[in-house]
Write the structure tokens for this entry.
Amino acid sequence: MKVYVHNQGIVLAGKAWEINAKLKESMQHFEYLEDWVKTVHSRPKLRLVHNAATTAQKKTGSS
């Protein structure tokens, strides 16, 4: 999963369950999505492209 932040907002790219997990995670820190966007934009040097920790890992030995 990737999170892209730009001037007009945030783009979440990934599977539906990954996006839902990221939104639930952000709800722990921010009441509204707008607050998240404002926080990210208040740190101009922060480049946020995040690989979610919830991404499933391929098991060794599986094809």
